[in-house]
Design goal:
This protein is α/β, with parallel strands linked by helices. About 35% of the residues lie in helices and about 15% in strands. It folds into two domains: about 150 residues, Alpha-Beta Complex (Aspartate Aminotransferase, domain 1); about 250 residues, Aspartate Aminotransferase, domain 2 (3-Layer(aba) Sandwich). Helix 3 packs antiparallel against helix 11 and helix 4 packs parallel to helix 11. The radius of gyration is 22 Å and the shape is globular. About 50% of the residues are buried. The structure holds pyridoxal-5'-phosphate. Its cofactor is pyridoxal 5'-phosphate.
């Protein structure tokens, strides 16, 4: 056998990406070849503990056996018929998801951004048809620091300059107020406001948990002013924070849930808008749709995912192991870590910026076998698959401690 340079396969794969993949991401130099549970193996055979879980799309772990078995079975039956016909998987999926959410109807889509776009359309239509807002006059209140995806309308109400610059003209009809400030939100609502759209815990912003009374106050304001409360639970929902929905931490039930990521079991893109008939009932044939939305393969996987969530096992795991994660990360306070935020197996970690950028620390961690993602500046995000073990959490945090120490933390 001819010995090859240890990194040849990695370098070749990255060189091909550089040539032919649009440069809209800046990935770490790790080339995944296979994955199982909480672990990813690269093209060199090196193993990494995945502490990002594809931004919560892999909540149940890579290739969860029951989800993969469901997918295989459905591949042998029917995968796509479009919504031009019925399929025997869509009704059961929507019924199960509606029940999980305590709502009546489900609008199935594919990506998270599509769910958000769909939620915006539904809110505007509801505003015109039900609330009586003059056509074209509706407003939606959003929060500073939001991340809801990257379509033209969604970036129109983002305050991330990188996501916006050069992509105008922007969609009007949005008002942005500071996240966590209920007075500012109240002041932004007027008679033409149809919705408040929020992430209950802001993910991309750095896992920002709002003040305790914020979401209950938002809920009350929405009810008082006949405004839809739309919770974007695409990243925070489906057991990530230790509850089925992040809103559950505050006992808040929004009018509309936006779901995605983990709903597709880490196998297919599957997203949804979930609400009562009084809201989603405003859509009629031809007003909205997607060729792949609610396809039988995705719906079959969605049924399995909802079934797994119904037992509460993953929510409990996330809550219990989240305590371990937060305790271990908390021990690094003053040793390179300045703050730790989050709920369940979801943590935003502010590092001492003198030790390096979040990207540099992520790179150093990848070299030690731990995959995480930086958000802004020197903040790291930990969101491992919920099948991770306490021992693996210890191992990952020890590696973070070693990287920070190497860079002079605590000295
Ligand atoms: C809260 C939230 N909403 C929407 C999206 C967009 O989802 P997608 O990338 O599937 O379009 C994301 C993606 O990270 C998200 O975190």
């Amino acid at each position: 056998m001819i010995a090859v340079d240890a990194d040849t396969a990695t370098q070749e794969a990255i060189a091909l990406d550089e040539c032919h993949v649009a440069h809209n991401y800046s990935p770490l130099p790790v080339v995944a070849a296979s994955a199982e549970g909480a672990w990813i193996t690269d093209v060199e055979g090196r193993r990494y503990l995945d502490c990002l879980a594809a931004y919560s799309a892999v909540n149940f772990g890579h290739r969860h056996p029951e989800i993969v078995a469901t997918a295989h079975a459905q591949l042998d039956a029917v995968t796509l018929v479009s919504r031009a016909f019925h399929s025997d998987r869509l009704g059961p999926f929507c019924a199960a998801l509606a029940e999980l959410c305590g709502k009546e109807l489900v609008l199935p889509m594919n990506s998270g951004a599509e769910a958000v776009e769909s939620g915006i359309k539904v809110a505007r239509k509801w505003g015109t048809d039900v609330k009586g807002v003059p056509a074209g006059q509706s407003t939606i209140v959003v929060a500073h620091g939001n991340f809801h995806g990257r379509t033209t309308t969604i970036i129109s109400f983002s305050d991330d300059d990188t996501a916006r610059r050069g992509f105008g003209p922007y969609t009007p009809g949005f008002r942005s107020v500071p996240f966590g400030d209920a007075d500012a939100l109240a002041a932004a609502i007027d008679e033409n406001t149809v919705a408040v759209l929020l992430e209950p815990i802001q993910g991309e912003a750095g896992i920002i948990v709002p003040p305790a009374d914020y979401l209950p106050t938002v809920r009350a304001l929405c009810t008082q002013h006949d405004v839809l409360m739309i919770a974007d639970e695409i990243q925070s929902g489906l057991a990530r924070t230790g509850r089925t929905f992040a809103c559950d931490h505050w006992g808040v039930v929004p009018d509309v849930y936006l779901l995605g990521k983990a709903l597709g079991g880490g196998v297919v893109p599957l997203s949804a808008v979930v609400a009562d008939r009084a809201v989603l009932g405003v859509l009629h044939p031809g007003e909205h749709g997607s060729t792949f939305g609610g396809n039988p393969l995705a719906a079959a996987i969605g049924i399995m995912v909802v079934g797994m969530l119904r037992s509460g096992e993953f929510q409990t795991r996330s809550a219990q192991l989240g305590d371990v994660l937060h305790a271990r990360l908390g021990e690094l306070h003053g040793r390179g870590v300045r703050a730790v935020r989050g709920r369940g197996l979801w943590a935003g970690v502010d590092l001492d910026p003198r030790l390096g950028t979040g990207k540099q620390i992520s790179l150093a961690l990848a070299e030690r076998g731990v995959l995480v993602k930086d958000t802004h500046g020197s903040t790291l995000r930990f969101a491992p698959p919920l099948v991770i073990t306490a021992a693996e959490i210890d191992w990952a945090v020890q590696r973070l401690a070693a990287v920070l120490a190497e860079r002079g933390a605590g000295s």
